[in-house]
Specification:
Layout: H1 3-7, H2 11-16, H3 19-162
Length: 195
């Protein structure tokens, strides 16, 4: 008789059974109990194994979550750093643009001044060229006058050989017999250094 059927028997039915039937039913119940205990033990092993697997997965997930949180924190710090760097770059760019505009203005102003000075120097150079040309003409005229005075002195020396020449006064306060030389210096001779 199966254990399930024995469990449904009442006490009167059990009293009516013989000793052998009761012993057989008891053994059947013991075997059934052993089988249940073995099955329960196997189930507990499976449950424990499953729990160990789940615990290992949970620990792995916690480690992964921790690493992800650390990576997330690093990314946040990196984003903050990059944002600060971007703000500094924009500020520096604006400062460089302002400096470039200021430098360009200064350069344009200096270029204008240099062009004005260059124009003045060119005008002064033209004036010096004209003055040098005038000085050259004056020098040529003076050289010609000196050449004429030399011819007259040679004529006077020849006439002195032919006869005595009375002393004459040149009217310039010099001693007798001396002829006043023409003024060969011009007020503009001091400017000959410009030639």
């Amino acid at each position: 008789m199966e254990a399930a059927g024995v469990s449904r028997l009442s006490d009167e039915d059990l009293l009516l059974r013989g000793k052998e039937d009761l012993i057989q039913m008891l053994k059947s119940l013991e075997n059934r109990n052993v089988d249940l205990m073995l099955e329960h033990g196997q189930l507990m092993k499976d449950v424990n194994r499953s729990l160990q697997v789940h615990l290992h997965e949970i620990r792995s997930l916690k480690e992964v979550n921790q690493r992800l949180q650390e990576d997330n924190q690093e990314l946040r710090e990196l984003c903050c750093f990059l944002d600060d760097d971007r703000q500094k770059g924009r500020k520096m760019c604006r400062e460089w643009q302002r400096f470039g505009r200021y430098t360009a203005g200064v350069l344009w102003r200096d270029v204008g001044l240099y062009q004005q000075k260059l124009t003045e120097l060119e005008a002064g150079q033209e004036a010096l060229r004209a003055e040098n040309a005038e000085l050259k003409e004056i020098v040529l005229m003076l050289d010609e006058e000196r050449g004429g005075a030399g011819s007259r002195s040679s004529i006077d020396s020849q006439s002195s050989l032919s006869g005595p020449v009375p002393p004459r006064d040149g009217g310039d306060g010099s001693s007798p017999g001396l002829v006043a030389r023409p003024n060969t210096h011009s007020p503009r001779d001091n400017s000959r250094g410009y030639m």
